[in-house]
Specification:
Helix content is 52%, strand content 13%. The protein is built from 12 helices and 8 strands. It has helices at residues 4-18, 25-41, 46-60, 63-66, 71-86, 114-129, 145-156, 169-182, 200-213, 228-240, 258-267, 288-296, and strands at 102-108, 133-137, 160-161, 187-191, 217-223, 245-249, 271-275, 283-285. It has an 8-stranded mixed β-sheet with strand order 3-2-4-1-5-6-7-8, with helices on both faces. The N and C termini lie close together (12 Å). 47% of the residues are buried. It binds guanosine-5'-diphosphate. Residues 108, 110-116, 194, 249-250, 252-253, 275-278, 282 line the site of guanosine-5'-diphosphate (GDP). Its EC number is 3.6.5.4.
Length: 297
């Protein structure tokens, strides 16, 4: 599983405090020193670490622990609660438009896994939620991007809307939505262009699409393995375009966990899905509480 390092370190720390019948302030201090190091080692954003440590420390020396019959376990519960909160608390589900189709713009930098995730999400929507998604090939710049989506569509037996690479992405998106209405698709997933870096052209084009199609959801796809870079990318996209959620890909290869633990707190936008492999079924809704439990063991 992802972030073994963090998990192992935190579990060792929690082990020391678990059975304690009395938890002193210095026990908490010692524990928090270790938690802080574990989080920093996992590449969690410094500000996020500081605020997390402050919150847990306050609660861990407070009434709820002191009055508890099992203070050691109560402290661990505080850590788990705050980890869950850090990752967004409640699960944040994909939007559903009151009037179909729900329009989802998939955005991100090249290589993050955007096209793959578009296919995976369509697959998940159909399989798990019984939806009828339409995939839209609107990345007209990257050679083979359209082909890649069409291949995924074939593999999944899902339709892909394309007008080739000579028509503007705004027009492709608009026509795709008309087509979706006629064909009674309830989700439209628009695979937009990615670039190697965030630049004005990329953002302008995405803003134009957003303006025109008024998406219900703008999902930013970022690569978890890039750690704090992923957080910076998310911040930029959010500031410039406004996103509604994040898909964190390649969590299967992320040994640290910094992005997963920082993105929500830094951008205030929820992680909605996580990618856990290259296969088409390797996408899962993100559950903060389950993730916190997995990390703490
Ligand atoms: P795009 O340029 O953002 O559209 O990126 P692609 O969808 O082409 O993906 C880039 C590479 O990342 C491909 O080799 C994908 O198979 C791989 N990839 C995408 N998501 C995941 C994931 O969750 N886990 C792993 N291990 N690989 C992934």
């Amino acid at each position: 599983m992802a972030f073994e390092g963090l998990s192992e370190r935190l579990q060792q720390t929690m082990q020391k405090i678990r059975g304690k019948g009395k938890v002193s302030e210095s026990d908490v201090k010692e524990m928090m020193r270790e938690v802080r190091l574990a989080l920093l080692y996992a590449d969690v954003n410094l500000k996020v670490v500081k605020s997390f440590i402050k919150k847990v420390s306050e609660r861990a020396v407070g009434q709820e622990v002191m009055k508890s019959l099992t203070p050691g376990q109560q402290v661990i519960k505080v850590v788990k609660d705050e980890l869950t909160e850090l990752m967004g608390g409640e699960q944040s589900k994909i939007a559903t438009a009151s009037k179909p189709p729900t329009v989802v713009m998939m955005v991100g930098l090249q290589g993050a896994g955007k096209t793959t995730t578009t296919g995976k999400l369509a697959n998940l929507l159909r399989k798990k939620y019984n939806r009828k998604p339409l995939l839209v090939a609107a990345d007209i710049y990257r050679p083979a991007a359209i082909n890649q989506l069409q291949t995924l569509g074939k593999q999944l037996s899902l339709p892909v809307f394309s007008l080739g690479d000579q028509v503007s992405p705004v027009e492709i998106a608009t026509k795709a939505i008309e087509h979706a209405k006629e064909q009674h698709h309830d989700y439209v997933l628009i695979d937009t262009a990615g670039r190697l870096h965030i630049d004005e052209n990329l953002m302008d084009e995405l803003k134009q699409i957003k303006e025109k199609v008024k998406p219900d959801e703008i999902l930013l796809v970022v690569d978890a393995m890039t750690g704090q870079d992923a957080v910076n990318v998310a911040t930029s996209f959010n500031d410039q375009l406004g996103i509604t959620g994040v898909v964190l890909t390649k969590l299967d290869g992320d040994t640290r966990g910094g992005a997963a633990l920082s993105i929500r707190a830094v951008t205030e936008k929820p992680i909605k899905f996580v990618g856990l492999g290259e296969k088409m079924d390797a996408l899962e809704p993100f559950h903060p509480e389950r993730m916190a439990s997995r990390i703490l063991g």
